[in-house]
Amino acid sequence: MSTDTTPEQPLTPGARRILDVASKLFYRHGIHAIGVDTIAAESGVTKRTLYDRFGSKDNLVAAYLNARARRWRETVTTRLHDAPPDPVARALVPFDALPDWLTPSTRGCGFINAFAELPEPDHPGQRIVVAEKQWLRTLFHDLLTEAGASHDDVDPLTTQLLSLHEGAIISYAIANDTSAAVATRAAAKTLITGALPEPAAE
């Protein structure tokens, strides 16, 4: 299970401040709504410094999404490392990670939001978003295979779990359903348990 994202380049303190400010603004207000002038001003740097550090707004957007992807993957993989060996529990880890991840995420999924704003398939930010969702799909697929789900069940069940997971994020943010993560975890557990072979009788 790879956790690789685009390697993070070492950042100067000024570049880190720019990225932190840009990340907050892009997530809260949208990528197109925020220009480099605003980011530079709120970061306390000149526009020239911003371009010196990142080259373009597109590169800054990609850096924001890549940093977010890295944080999410690290959150999940840390929980996987600490999870009990029970295969069902391991397959549910992405759901277990949701409550803490969603608490500050008042604008929903930053990747879905970015995808809606970046229709160009060759935009570096869109490529990161697509890779992030593919990573989660592959993770579910691998965990279900580990758990012993049959070959015929793994693909449809992977789609079901990914849909539940993404739906929980949307329900939490848009419908203000604070129970979404818990409810979808319960549904996912039912699906996973039903797809696994019965333990052999002793």
UniProtKB/TrEMBL annotation:
Gene3D superfamilies the record matches: Tetracycline Repressor, domain 2
Question: Which sections of the sequence are annotated for DNA binding?
Answer: 35-54
**One Gene Ontology term of the molecular function aspect:** transcription cis-regulatory region binding
- Report the residue ranges that make up the HTH tetR-type domain in this protein: 12-72
Q: Does the keyword DNA-binding apply?
A: yes
Q: Which Pfam families match?
A: TetR_N
Tell me the keywords, alphabetical order.
Answer: DNA-binding
Q: What is this protein called?
A: DNA-binding transcriptional regulator, AcrR family
State the species of origin.
Answer: Actinopolyspora saharensis
Taxonomic lineage of the native organism: Bacteria, Bacillati, Actinomycetota, Actinomycetes, Actinopolysporales
